[in-house]
Write a structure and sequence with these properties.
oxidoreductase, 155 residues, 30% helix, globular, alpha+beta, 9 strands, peroxidase, Glutaredoxin, peroxidase activity, Thioredoxin_domain, 5 helices, two-stranded antiparallel sheet
Length: 155
């Protein structure tokens, strides 16, 4: 499995968010995007990472970056998760075709049927500026996100 590398274009996708609304990659162009792939809603490691991102939501707003979480959970699970945890982010369901978008980003675990942890920061033109990940059992550090925002601001 090879994650997308900086310079890659935003892969085409058509997913539903937690409200059942269609989100197309083409419709996201013109915005700075941080796509955060993670294994499962309601899991302890994912929760700790999302709570930390929530704590620093103003950093993303200040950098004009839209944060989108992506997992292979259903839209119903994602909505329940976002509401229960009071997360201010949009979540996209890569449930069906199962893991298709996670595969396009190089983060789908075929054996476990889930997205691994991968973060991808795109500029307004849909070009990947920064990508990083961590093992599924380890949350990505806030410092990694800070470094990504700093790198984007320097361009």
């Amino acid at each position: 499995m090879t994650m997308l590398k900086p310079g890659a274009r935003l892969p085409d996708f058509n997913l539903e968010n937690q409200f059942g609304e269609r989100v197309l990659s083409d419709g996201l162009l013109g915005r700075r995007l941080l796509l955060v792939f993670y294994p499962f809603a309601f899991s302890p490691t994912c929760g700790s990472e999302w709570f930390e991102l929530k704590e620093h939501a103003e950093s993303f707003t200040a950098a004009a970056v839209s944060v989108l979480g992506v997992s292979t959970d259903t839209k119903y699970a994602l909505r329940a998760y976002a509401e229960a945890a009071e997360l201010p982010f949009e979540f996209l369901s890569d449930f069906w075709p199962h893991g298709e978008v996670s595969r396009a980003f190089g983060v789908f675990n075929e054996t476990r049927g889930m997205a691994e942890r991968g973060s991808f920061l795109f500029d307004e033109l849909g070009l990947l500026q920064v990508s990083f990940g961590s093992p599924s059992s380890t949350a990505r550090s806030w410092e990694s996100y800070q470094d990504a925002l700093t790198a984007l601001a320097a361009k």
